[in-house]
Design a protein that fits this description.
Layout (H helix, E strand, L loop, with lengths): L13 H4 L5 H4 L6 E2 L11 H10 L13 H14 L9 E4 L3 H11 L5 E6 L3 H8 L4 E6 L1 E3 L2 E3 L2 H7 L4 E7 L11 H14 L2 E5 L27 E5 L2 H4 L7 E4 L3 H10 L9 H13 L1 H25 L13 E5 L9 H9 L1 E2 L1 E2 L10 E5 L4 H16 L1
Parallel strand pairs: 1-12, 3-4, 3-7, 7-8, 8-9
Antiparallel strand pairs: 2-10, 5-6, 9-10, 11-14, 13-14
Helix pairs in contact: 3-11, 4-11, 5-6, 5-10, 12-14, 13-14
Bound molecules: pyridoxal-5'-phosphate.
Length: 390
Amino acid sequence: MTDLAAHPYDAASPDRLRHADSTKWTFYDEDVLPMWVADMDFPVAEPILTALRERLTRSIGYAQVTGDPVLKTQLIDKLERDGLIGLTPEGVSFLPGVVPGLYAAVQALTQPGDEIMTVVPIYPPFLSAITDHGRVLNAVPLTESQQGWTLDMDALEAAVTPRTKLLMLCHPHNPAGRVWTRAELEQMADLALKHGLYVVSDELHADLRYPDAPEYVPFAAVRPELAQRVVTLTGPCKAYNTAGLGIGAMISHNPELVAQLEKATKGIMGHASALSITMWQTALSGGAEWLAETLKYLQANRDFLSEFMARELPDVPYTPPQATYLAWFDLRNHPRAADIQNYLLEEGKLALNDGLNFGAGYQGFVRLNFATSRELLQEGLTRLARAVRG
Ligand SMILES: Cc1ncc(COP(=O)(O)O)c(C=O)c1O
């Protein structure tokens, strides 16, 4: 395990974090330790802060609202390094966040009454993007085994119907923490090819991979013959802890597809803010060192958490995430499984995300955000263990 002696992130303390601007730290009473909303209790990278200060010395009138060309080039170069080659600026469009991209894809690529397939458990806005506007959720559970969470390809194949139009993927997966392997992605791509599906791949967590994860392959790179039907969504907010500055991108080898998403949300999408553009540019040009350091700390936290769970709560099924700073615990065997989130809140003074929001059948699961100081993580896990044991 990494030696974390006197790491600056150890300084994260409730007194500093509980400011009125933070949803995570003000939603519950002060005696509750919040380990739910997916942002980090760490300061933003210094190069980003410096660039934002400098940006504020100039006009903050309309920035490049039709798509900042510098950021487009930087992003295309970055995605190429990730293995997504052949993108053009016309195939990139900025958004005020990644969730708007999920909704835009649903609006543009399907009609009310169409089925949209995804795997569950899943980040809740996938579900609401499907059902909020009259589309039909076709949810296929992941398989849980000793090896972790895997795709059930037979179940996915069996669930496709003539009304299924779109497949929504989360890669790496929130909340299971999986980086899907090339073989798994090929199977998903083949399913989409066979049934003529569009695919949206939310790859927002891609830069939060641990060294022991499988090789990361962007979904759109897997089957070139499918790329014309794939939209990739990404953004800087998970890797660089900048969710409050809202920006994302929808990307495709098929600019026409991107134009369709733009058209479906024309006038209601809003543009990425001037500061968010500066922030993402700087994350891409000068954020690598901060990200590497942060990942080291997160990996050490993940390993600490895994050791804690094996030692203190060995009966709680959990597999270490390959990416993300999110841990997904199965507490369905607990006597209070029916209201586990509330039980942990009331009895444990610990705020976690409730599994029931991640899909039907996930009552009894909880998600814990371990992007905090080692001390707060230890405190949170101690509260969890105490409450679970009763
Ligand atoms: C998979 C995934 N997509 C999108 C989001 C949110 O993105 P944004 O805040 O840019 O809308 C999150 C946040 O946790 C997420 O986990």
